[in-house]
Design brief:
Blueprint lengths: L12 H4 L3 H22 L1 H10 L9 H4 L5 E2 H15 L14 E6 L9 E5 H17 L7 E5 L9 H10 L2 E3 L7 H11 L3 E4 L1 H15 L10 E4 L8 H11 L2 E6 L7 E3 L10 E3 L5 E6 L6 E2 L6 E8 L10 E10 L11 E7 L4 E3 L2 E3 L1 H9 L5 E9 L5 E2 L4 E6 L4 H19 L4 E5 L14 E3 L6
Parallel strand pairs: 1-14, 4-5, 4-6, 6-7, 7-8, 16-19, 18-22, 20-21
Antiparallel strand pairs: 2-3, 8-9, 9-10, 10-15, 11-12, 11-13, 13-14, 14-15, 16-17, 18-20
Helix pairs in contact: 2-3, 6-7, 9-10, 11-12
The structure holds zinc ion (ZN).
Length: 458
C-alpha cells in the first residue's frame, strides 16, 4: 500500500525544515512558557530560579537563561532519593505533572548507581514517538518495513519507547531484545525477515562473528538493509561503521535519543565529520555547551566542543532544565552536504570516561576506533586496563587487545604499526597485552572499554 506523501524525505517537513532563525524564535517562545510551568510546578526547578535570583519573567533571552544553574545527574539522583524519603514518590520534587497524568516511567541504565527516571505524560510520549519517526523516516524506513530491536528491553529507553516510536511511524517492530541471547536474535531474524536491525555496534560485530557459526551463513545473507547503532558510542566511528556495513551488506546509521527529547541520527555523507548526527528535535529540546570544569557557556559555533546541557521545551512530566548528563559533545552548525536539515553533533565520550595521559585527553571510544583500523589482523575487541579510576593515567596506557589469529612474528609487526598510529592519532604510546581471538567477553548490551585492576607487583 502506498500512502500519500510516502516519498517525502522528511517525516515532518514543516518543522524539520525550519530556518535556524525561525527555530530559535520557536525555541525561545516555548522556553519562556516551559520555565513558567517548571517554576510553578516543581520545588526543585523553583530553587534553581532562586539560586539565580530570577523569576521566570526575568528570562527573556537565551543569555538570561544561562544564569540558571546547571543540574547534574548526581543532583537528580539525590533529589529522587529525597523525594522518595519525604513524599513516597520519586518524582514529587522534580516532576511537574500530577500523578494522574503520568503514563510512563523510563530509567537510565544506572550503571553507576540508582537509575534516574524520566516521567512522561501522554503528551510527552507523543513527542518521543514523533522524534523516533523523524529519525527512521529520513533514512528510508517506511510502513511495510520490519525492524528487529536487539537492545536491552528492560525498562531502559532503548526498550519500549523505541518500539512505540517505530510503530508510530507505521513500520513493524520485532522487539526481541538481547536478554534471550544471540541465538534467539538470529532465530527471530530467520523467522521474521526484518529489513533493519537496531543494536549496539559491539553486538553487531559479535553477530558478524557468530552468524556463520550458528546459522551456517554469513551475516550479509541475513537480508538486513539497515543497521541502526544505538546504546554506545562506536556507531560514530568510521571503521566500526565500515565493519558493520560490510559485514551485513547494510546502510549503517548511528542514532541517539530514547525516552526523552534529545534525538539525533547520522546521515550518509562522508567527510571529516563522518558519523556526526543531525539534531532532529530542536523544537522540543534546547541544546547548550558548557566548559566541563568552569561551567561557563561555550558558543555553539562550527566545531565547538563542550559538555552538553539540555532543556526540554514542551514537556509536561519531568521536564529537564539545564541538565548535564556528563556527555562531551562537538557540534557543526554549517549545512551538511547531504542536504538534510539540522545542526550536526558527535558525542565524543563521557566527561567522566575521559582519561588524561601526560596531559593529553584520551577517549576510550577513540582508542577502539584506532584499533578497529587494523582489522582483520585484530578482532577489534579490547580493554583499557587502569590501576585505579581515571581520569589521570600513570603512563603507559595499558591496552589488552585481541589479535585476529596471526603468528607471533606478524603480531610484532602489527604492534609497531599500531604504536605509530596511536602516536599520530591520539598522541599516546600504549603498551599492549596480546590475547587470542575470542578471549574477551562480548555478549552484553554495552561493553565497557575500561577495566580497573591494580598492576601486579613487580
Ligand atoms: Zn548530513
Amino acid at each position: 500500500m502506498i500512502e500519500a506523501g510516502r516519498d517525502r524525505g522528511l517525516w515532518n517537513p514543516a518543522v524539520e525544515m525550519l530556518a535556524p532563525e525561525a527555530l530559535r524564535e520557536l525555541q525561545l517562545d516555548r522556553l519562556m512558557r516551559q520555565l513558567r510551568y517548571n517554576y510553578e510546578h516543581s520545588p526543585v526547578h523553583r530553587s534553581k530560579f532562586e539560586e539565580a535570583g530570577a523569576l521566570p519573567e526575568d528570562i527573556r533571552s537565551f543569555a538570561d537563561f544561562a544564569r540558571i544553574p546547571v543540574m547534574t545527574k548526581d543532583e537528580h539522583r539525590r533529589v529522587q532519593e529525597q523525594s522518595l524519603r519525604e513524599h513516597g514518590s520519586p518524582s514529587a520534587l522534580f516532576g511537574c505533572a500530577p500523578p494522574e497524568e503520568i503514563v510512563r516511567i523510563n530509567a537510565t541504565s544506572g550503571t553507576t548507581g540508582m537509575p534516574t527516571l524520566y516521567t512522561l505524560t501522554a503528551h510527552d510520549v507523543a513527542v518521543v514517538n514523533e522524534m523516533h519517526a523523524r529519525k527512521y523516516w529520513r533514512c528510508g524506513i517506511r510502513p511495510g518495513h520490519t525492524m528487529i530491536q536487539a537492545l536491552s528491553l528492560s525498562m531502559f529507553t532503548g526498550g519500549l519507547p523505541l518500539s512505540q516510536g517505530i510503530m508510530h511511524l507505521g513500520a513493524c517492530v520485532v522487539p526481541v531484545g538481547i536478554e534471550g541471547g544471540t541465538r534467539r536474535v538470529l532465530d527471530m531474524i530467520a523467522l521474521t525477515r526484518p529489513h533493519a536491525i537496531v543494536a549496539t555496534p559491539s553486538f553487531g560485530q559479535y553477530l558478524i562473528e557468530e552468524a556463520p557459526r550458528q546459522t551456517g551463513r554469513p551475516a550479509h545473507e541475513l537480508g538486513l538493509r539497515w543497521f541502526f547503532c544505538a546504546g554506545e558510542g562506536g556507531g560514530g566511528d568510521a571503521d566500526i561503521r565500515r565493519t558493520l556495513a560490510e559485514g551485513f551488506g547494510a546502510e549503517v546509521y548511528d542514532h541517539t535519543g530514547g525516552g526523552h527529547a534529545f534525538h539525533g541520527i547520522s546521515c550518509d555523507h562522508a567527510d571529516e565529520v563522518e558519523g556526526a548526527m543531525h539534531f532532529v528535535s530542536g523544537d522540543h529540546c534546547l541544546l547548550e555547551l558548557i566548559d566541563p570544569k568552569t561551567r561557563n557557556p561555550i558558543e555553539m559555533s562550527e566545531g565547538a566542543i563542550g559538555e552538553m546541557v539540555f532543556s526540554f521545551l514542551d514537556w509536561r512530566g519531568g521536564p529537564f532544565m539545564r541538565y548535564a548528563l556528563g556527555d562531551l559533545l562537538q557540534v557543526w552548525t554549517s549545512p551538511c552536504p547531504c542536504g538534510r536539515p539540522g545542526m550536526r553533533f558527535k558525542i565524543l565520550g563521557r566527561t567522566d570516561d575521559m582519561l588524561t595521559v601526560k596531559g593529553m585527553n584520551v577517549y576510550p571510544q577513540a582508542v577502539a576506533g584506532v584499533v578497529a583500523r587494523f582489522r582483520p589482523r585484530v578482532t577489534g575487541a579490547l580493554r583499557i586496563r587502569l590501576d585505579r579510576p581515571g581520569p589521570a593515567v600513570t603512563p603507559p596506557l595499558r591496552i589488552r587487545i585481541e589479535h585476529g589469529g596471526i603468528e607471533a612474528a606478524a603480531i610484532a609487526d602489527l604492534e609497531r604499526e599500531l604504536l605509530l598510529e596511536f602516536r599520530d592519532s591520539l598522541r599516546v604510546t600504549p603498551v599492549f597485552e596480546w590475547l587470542a581471538p575470542g578471549t574477551l567477553p562480548r555478549e552484553s548490551g554495552k561493553i565497557r572499554l575500561i577495566e580497573i585492576e591494580p598492576a601486579p607487583a613487580s
